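hey so u asked for the seq, here:
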Amino acid sequence: MRSYKISWGDANVLRHVLLTSAALALTGCLTPPAGRESVPVFDAPFAWSAPTPDSGVPASGDWVAGFDDPTLNALVEEGFAINYNLAATAARLEQAFAIATQAGAGRFPSVDLNSRNTRTDSRPVDSGTFGLSLQASWEADVWRRVANQAKAGTLDAEAAFADLEGARLSLAGQIAQGWYDLVEARLNTALSEDEVATFERSLRLTQRRYDAGVAGALDVRLSRSSLALSEASLAQRRNFENGAARGLEVLLGRYPAALIESDPDLPTLAPLTGVGAPGDLLARRPDLRAAEARLESSGYRAKVARKALLPSLTLSASGAGANTKLENVLDVDGLVSTLTASLLQPIFRGGALRAEVRRSDGVVRERLYAFANQVLTAYREAEDALDAEIALAIQEEALGRAADEAREAESLAERNYTRGVGTIFELLDAQRRRINAERSLIGTRAERVANRIRLHLAIGGEFYVSAGPGAFAKESNS
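ran it, structure tokens below
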């Protein structure tokens, strides 16, 4: 099976002045053309503000395989083979390539061939004439207007290419998140099953004490109430688990029947290494590269709009022949040919051409500022994930200790109640505290996994999959 590597490639991010820097602090203004508003330029820091290991070391490796979960690897492979959204994005790339070809077609002559056959029915003699004409025209690209239009189409195709890369990265993240959402839901269901079993045991203990006359009816009713609440919670957790399974099945192109089985536990995360430098994001993240290409494309289209005010030179040639016999249509003596050069200078179009200049300039400014905001948002996503990496690790460790203590407290409360030196309130409270502590621990462990996935998406992490719909990336050398 062929293997493809999803990587950020060799994008030239220095093509535009805005792309030579990252977005954290505004440090100056790009001098615009006369009468144009200023454009903010921002400088990229050399390191992340959040504490990170190996800060600045280029990010590398397969982040999907980094979870050390063969099931996840298989699910990502399956999703790439059949996911319908990914296939639709690949189809949009085909459209973009076709549009780029159309945009560049003006650089070449257009040639049309026309044939005709005229027949006259008149008795006693029928007559007919065969005709053939050839027409060709070509616009001399004096001002490079056609070249600018072709370049804009090429950049739009590059943006669509980056969109497909982004869709593949996003799909890998969605499948990973969907898989671990299912694992988390299964763990919570198992905890709810344990909760029901715990309160069933408490009810049996309370009922025996009540039958022996050492506990009152209040103890029994409180135990029954706790059991009923735990049964309701279990039904809810099972519903959540089924919903998580269906969501993942849709990503995999399966019928959402909630039949997919989950792993028994969440993965143990390896230490975080090599997250790269902030400046890497402009080249690594497909969405930023797509925005860059569209920004540059709008600049070329603005040039096309301004050059539409200039004269255009078109060369045209035609040749035609006619004869009553088909074999004589191309007889040199009967051919008529013309060669024309025309110079067209727009004079009055009701202000439409100048309005298009203003509109295209507005598109450039809109995309420029939208891109600046997109860059800032990308840095925030990465910084948030890096900051949460540390906070969640501390939180998980603390909740682990809390869960251990809660288990010991529950065991002690149950022994005390059995010996008659504790109350039902102490027992039920200890049981609920243990269950809540374990549920919080599950949630935090799942959030750590989710945050690691978000981090890889935020920095445009690489991963490896077999070819599926829209396979496009460079073939792996490994």
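Confidence is low (pLDDT under 50) at residues 1-38, 470-478. The longest helix spans residues 352-419.
lmk if thats what u needed
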